[in-house]
Amino acid sequence: MSFFRITLHRSAIGLPKRTRGVLMALGLRRRSQTVFHPVSAQFAGMILKVKELVRVEEVDRALSNSEVKAERTPDTGFFVERRGNATTTGEQGGLLRRGGVVREAMIMAAEEKKNSDSSRVVL
């Protein structure tokens, strides 16, 4: 069974009461709020009435509120996973992670730096 994923994109402030009523019937109260309704002619008609205000996608299953929230959560960014000792040139070794995935190139560069005496690899 398919579902409409309906997200309120534009505010209903200043719009006619009839248009706001359609949004309330769809279950949309706030901007960026997402609801799921089964694909049917009734919901398709309501969506057409407010097509300028909403974004609609057809999905295979309805997501739970926690799944929708997890989708919207931004990436955590950079953080230091492991700190190395300071070298004589003042550089500090360490591996950076982005969103939980270790960058393989940085690991390889750190290993090359340990193995070779003459070549310098800057992280």
From TrEMBL:
Family annotation (SUPFAM superfamilies): Ribosomal protein L30p/L7e
Localisation: Mitochondrion
Record keywords: Mitochondrion, Ribonucleoprotein, Ribosomal protein
Any GO MF annotation of the entry: structural constituent of ribosome
UniProt xrefs under Pfam families: Ribosomal_L30 (PF00327)
Main location: mitochondrion
Biological-process GO terms, alphabetical: translation
Large ribosomal subunit protein uL30-like ferredoxin-like fold domain ranges (all copies): 4-54
PROSITE patterns: RIBOSOMAL_L30
GO cellular component labels: large ribosomal subunit; mitochondrion
TM regions (residue ranges): none
Organism domain of life: Eukaryota
InterPro entries recorded: Ribo_uL30_ferredoxin-like_sf (IPR036919), Ribosomal_uL30_bac-type (IPR005996), Ribosomal_uL30_CS (IPR018038), Ribosomal_uL30_ferredoxin-like (IPR016082)
Annotated function: Component of the mitochondrial ribosome (mitoribosome), a dedicated translation machinery responsible for the synthesis of mitochondrial genome-encoded proteins, including at least some of the essential transmembrane subunits of the mitochondrial respiratory chain. The mitoribosomes are attached to the mitochondrial inner membrane and translation products are cotranslationally integrated into the membrane.
Record-stated family: Belongs to the universal ribosomal protein uL30 family.
Protein name per the record: Large ribosomal subunit protein uL30m
